Amino acid sequence: METYIPQILHTYIKTTMISHKSIAIKFIFLVCLCFEYKSFLVSGRCLEREREALMRFKNGLIDAHDTLSSWRAQPDCCDWEGVVCSNATTAHVVALLLNNSTLGGEIVSALLDLTRLSRLDLSYNRFNGTRIPGFLGSMKRLQHLNLSMASLAGGIPPELGNLTHLRTLDLSNDLLEDDTSYLNTLNGPIPNIFAGLNLLELLDLSGNMLQGEIPKSLGNMSHLQVLNLHNNDLQGHIHQTFVNFPSLQNLDLGYNQLSGPLPRLGGLFRLRKVYFAYNKFSGPVPVTLGQLPNLEVVDLCFNSLQGTISQSDHFIKLHKLKVLDFSFNTNITMQISDDWSPPFQLDIINLGGCKLGPIFPKWIRNQTDLSWLDLSSSGIADEVPQWLWNLFPPLPKNSTLSPSPSPSPHHKSYRYLNLSHNQISGAIPDLSHYQIDIIDVSSNSISGPIPLFQPYTYIFQLSQNIFTGSIKSMCSYSHLSLAILDISINRLAGELPDCWDEMSSLQALNLANNSFSGEIPRSLGSLDSLVALHLRDNRLSGELPFELKNCRNLRLVDVGENELTGRIPAWIGASYSYLINLSLRSNGFHGSIPVEICNLTRIQVLDVSRNNLSGKIPECFSNFTTLVEKTNESTNILHIAIKIPYDLQSSDAIVITEDIEYSLVQWKGRESEYRKNLALLKLIDLSSNRLTGGIPQSFSTMKELISLNLSRNNLTGDIIPDIAGMEMLECLDLATNRLSGKIPMGMAQLHYLDVLDLSGNNLTGKIPTSTQLQSFAASVYGRNDGLCGPPLGPCPGEGPTTATVARGEDVEEGDEGVWRLSLMQGFGISLGFGFIVGFWGVVGALLVKESWRYAYFNLLDDVGNWFLVTIALFGSKLRRSAFRGDQILHVN
Fold first, then answer.
1. Spatial contact of 519 and 540, defined as CB atoms under 8 Å apart
2. Angle at 63 between CA 62 and CA 66, to 5 degrees
3. How far is CA 160 from CA 127, 155, 459, 569, in A?
4. How many helices and strands in the chain, by DSSP H and E?
5. How far apart are CA 491 and CA 165, in angstroms?
6. What pLDDT, on the 0 to 100 scale, is given for residue 479?
7. Cα(555)–Cα(605) distance, rounded to whole angstroms?
8. Taking residues 814-843, what's their average pLDDT?
């Protein structure tokens, strides 16, 4: 192309009929043009100054994965990764799209030299707490700014209010629980900068830690279509002017601390989706909600809304409604007639926690396209209707006949049914031909046998009902997708089937509180995904099968309250490295506690009480890391997440988190059933066995232990002198052993001690003095003939103690047996006598002497009138001062 330049110049000179001077001037101009053209050839379409600006921007970044390698290899910046230029004539950089590029470092001001930049996308990168730079507000041509999921922190810079051409602003994050993500999220108030951003169509600030009230200036954006402030810490009421968005389609204020009444949305006729969930809104649901003809989603769950929802006021124009969620607004009453035919066909009905009952709501039977139905805790006390099951689509006829079915092509999306925590009665039919992926009918009064269910079910929860019979029918089909099976607290009986290998995805199995008998089936050992195994309170016998050692992901094992025998297997310690809760209580295990048990470094609850164990307690309990030192592990360690696909033809899925915490422990002197926060409990219970030897010194290292029960054994020796090391101890039971020696002084330093029992031992000496130890009843120290001091009797050579006399115990004085009154008793009697004399001395005189009575009440009237006049004058003076201040401000 360089050889063509002289020809252009020659043609230009030849055809120009002007003076020599003009020719000279234009010749110089063309020479300069040639040099500029040669420069263009060197750099391609990219302008040199913008290329240099991009390189300076890159130098501020950390590109650990060499994502921007093309920025070195290609001379033309328009060919670089993420760089978009305009047409070939101008070649300005108009867009920088570096999303999901694993970049870090700093966003530097070199971007200001990209004067035509209209789109900047740095989302899904790792800037690790870097602040959003204020200079971005000087990039006046920006129309689209996306800094979402980029680990940016700090406040939103007010300079962004200068971007008057901005159409989309996405500063969203993903604030997760039990995570350090809060360190890389935006915080502070939402700045009042939106008055000039009236072209904005999308504003997404979700998933941050923004605080304060929603600024009123947000109400001025007439073009806004999407407003997402989900999952922040916003407070205060919503101003009515805030919802003057004529173009608004999606409004998400969920997961904040917003309060007051819901805003009236009557004028937002384009609105399609409304999310106000998980706030503190109160008052009635506005009837204007029923006037929005394009509304598809209404999610008001987990607020404090109240009042009556009626068919004529709240649903009259909602022909397009697909999602209805008023759940857990416990003061909402659904007042809908049985013969009502809704104008919509819902996909999701979530009314759990609302007042629907006692009759099963019949209007639901007209909803033929449901995927989610939640009527839990809604006060229904009715028999389950047969039409309910017809709301869910049938499976193909041949899909349930195969013992190992393949996914059905008709199995389009997951289906959810929750009727739990009602008083629903009746029986459940055969569900093997209905597509219901998640079923929860727990805590009702449903009877009959356990129903068959379809092979693609993920969660099957029928606990706390009155189901009867055996569960062998569950072997009729393979349930390879089943993740949670909970049929606990029923009246089921018979032997457990041996087909658990056909449920290979099981993560939680709960068969507790039934009457199952026989041995634990060996096929349970094939469940290598199992996290929680509950077999408590049945009549299971035999030994723990060796195959269970293959369930290496177990975190909770509860086989207590059965008739199991044999030794505690040593493989428990070798195989269950993730185990947190182990309960073998109330069985017939014998032999010693295997030393391998100390390999359970994550154990938090170890309960082997009420067995026939003998021998010494292992000296290695200091290996229990979570009991020895504070750990940063999540408190949600006994929850599981289940991924359920929306559609077998796509990768989209929903993740459902289920609570699997459930155990019975001896806590503070009585049996307690824990279903929540079991991970916070740290307990060792070895009571009611035949253990011998002393208390291991290693126990003193367990400073995170909350409860220790070694009672009803044959332990000897002293209480460990370093017991003060167990600084978090709240419960200590060493009763009915053969412990001797003195109570160590360190026990007085257990400041959290709330339950103590040292009775039935051979302890001697004086009880150490402390606030806790003297506050316990004398029975705590009973049957230790050598103990003395408060709250027991005085030690030899000491006088009677105040605590002894205060508890009403007898103290002999010589041989006369004379009773003494303690100081407190004397004070109490004096107080009572003084009250009687003082009260009747005044009141009696007023009753007897009429003139004194009149004078007394006149004095009260005068004092009261003086107070009223004084308060009135003071208030008037304040109002005058405030009025004068307003006048001064007005004049100024």
1. yes
2. 165
3. 19, 11, 48, 66
4. 11, 54
5. 68
6. 87
7. 11
8. 51
Rg of the chain in Å (alpha carbons): 39
Would you tell me the crossing angle of helices 20-43 and 48-59 to the nearest 10 degrees? 30
Average pLDDT of the chain is 82
Residue among 216, 202, 217 at smallest CA distance from 247 = 202
Using left for φ > 0, alpha for ψ between -120 and 50, and beta otherwise, residue 255 falls in left
The Cα angle at residue 858 between residues 856 and 863, in degrees rounded to 5: 100
CA dihedral 472, 474, 478, 483 (to 10 degrees): -130
> Each residue of 34-61: b (16+ CB within 10 Å) or e?
eeeeeeeeebbbbbeebbebbeebbeeb
Q: Which amino acid is at 460?
A: F
Q: Which two tokens stand for residue 679?
A: 């991970």
Report residue 114 CA to chain centroid gap: 44
pLDDT for res 364: 94
Q: Read off φ and ψ for residue 536, nearest 5 degrees.
A: -65, 150
Q: 423-441 pLDDT, tens per residue?
A: 999 999 999 888 899 999 9
Alpha-carbon span 583 to 97, nearest angstrom: 56
Token readout for 80 is 């670089």
Does 8 score more than 50 pLDDT?
no
Work out the number of other CB atoms within 10 angstroms of the CB of residue 657.
Answer: 9
- Transcribe 84-108 into DSSP letters: EE--TTT--EEEEE-TTS--EE---
Give one word for 190, left, alpha or beta, with left for phi > 0 and alpha for psi -120 to 50: beta
Name residues whose C-beta falls within 8 Å of residue 332's C-beta, 6 or more positions apart in sequence. 285, 305, 306, 307, 308, 309, 326, 354, 355
The answer to whether 732 and 708 are in contact (CB under 8 A) is: yes
| Three-state DSSP class for residue 702 | coil
Task: Average the pLDDT over each of 169-173, 433-437, 869-873 and give the range with the smallest value.
Answer: 869-873
User: 446: alpha, beta or left, given left = phi > 0 and alpha = psi -120 to 50?
Assistant: beta
| H or E, element range at 30 | helix 20-43
Whole-model pTM: value is 0.78
Overall size of the chain counted in residues: 892
CA 331 to chain centre: 23
Rounded to whole angstroms, the Cα distance separating 479 from 473 reads 12
- The two tokens of residue 243 are 């919802």
DSSP 798-815: ----HHHHHTT-----TT
Distance of alpha carbon 282 from the chain centroid: 22
**In the chain, what is the greatest distance between 2 CA atoms, to the nearest angstrom?**
148
Question: Is 777 buried (19+), middle (13-18) or exposed (0-12) by CB count in 10 A?
Answer: exposed
Alpha carbon distance 487, 92 (integer Å): 67
The 3-state DSSP class for residue 675 equals coil
Q: Which of 585, 579, 597 is nearest to 696 (CA)?
A: 597
| The pLDDT of residue 613 | 97
User: What pLDDT score was predicted for residue 663?
Assistant: 58
Q: Residues 186, 163: contact at Cβ < 8 Å?
A: no
In whole angstroms, what is the distance from residue 67 CA to residue 784 CA? 76
> In angstroms, rounded to a whole number, what is the distance separating the alpha carbons of residues 189 and 200?
20
The structure tokens 């504070």 sit at 630
What residue has token string 């009746």?
Answer: 426
Across the range 181-193, mean pLDDT stands at: 83
Q: How far apart are CA 32 and CA 759, in angstroms?
A: 105
Model confidence over 713-738: pLDDT tens digits? 999 999 999 999 999 999 999 999 99
3-state secondary structure of 476: helix
DSSP string across 532-550? EEE--SSEEEEPPPGGGGG
**119: Cβ contacts below 8 Å, ≥ 6 apart:** 84, 94, 95, 96, 97, 142, 143, 144
Are 244 and 221 in contact by the 8 Å Cβ rule? The answer is no
Pairing of strands 663-667, 670-674: antiparallel
DSSP string of 501-518, one letter each residue:
GG-TT--EEE--SSEEEE
